Amino acid sequence: MKFQMPSEFQKEIAESTKKVYAGKLNALAREGFETVASIQADPKLVIAAIKKITGEADDDKTRNARRYFISAIFYVAKFPKKNPFYTYYQKCLPSKVFGTDTDWVTRKKYVEED
């Protein structure tokens, strides 16, 4: 199944990113979320589908895969700042800074440390 892309998007992005996002949205379509409206209707079911697709692991590789799904959703649909997708995206932040043993610091904590 293919996801039915909307005619308008939230922002302009590179063609390569559009292809990646289309793949993620098509994976959601195979789980029954074929339109923007179906994604907006029940975010908790969509998040459960993302977990099903990416697996239950909680490592940085899986978190990265989940962030791509959420980013694709934000590309095609508009949501208020406080929504289940945004909250879930925050849970998918990396645990370490790439290539180091340094713990990932949220923006809020990073700004407080300066």
- The amount of beta strand, in percent, is under 5%
Main β sheet profile:
none
Global geometry: globular
Q: What is the count of helical runs?
A: 6
The count of strands amounts to 0
Radius of gyration: 15 Å
Which runs of at least 5 residues are low in confidence (pLDDT < 50)? none
SSE sequence, one letter per element: HHHHHH
Structural class: mainly alpha
Distance between the termini: 48 Å
How many domains, in number, for the residues? Answer: 1
Mean pLDDT: 87
Q: Roughly what percent helix? A: 55-70%
Describe the structure.
By secondary structure, this protein is an all-alpha fold. It has six helices and no strands. It has one domain. 58% of the residues lie in helices and 0% in strands. Helix 1 packs across helix 4 (60-76) and helix 4 (60-76) runs antiparallel to helix 5 (84-91). The model has no long low-confidence stretch (mean pLDDT 87).
Task: Briefly characterize the structure.
The protein is mainly α. The protein is built from 6 helices and no strands.
Search tags:
single chain, 114 residues, mainly alpha, 0% strand
Layout of secondary structure:
Blueprint: H1 15-30, H2 36-41, H3 43-54, H4 60-76, H5 84-91, H6 107-113
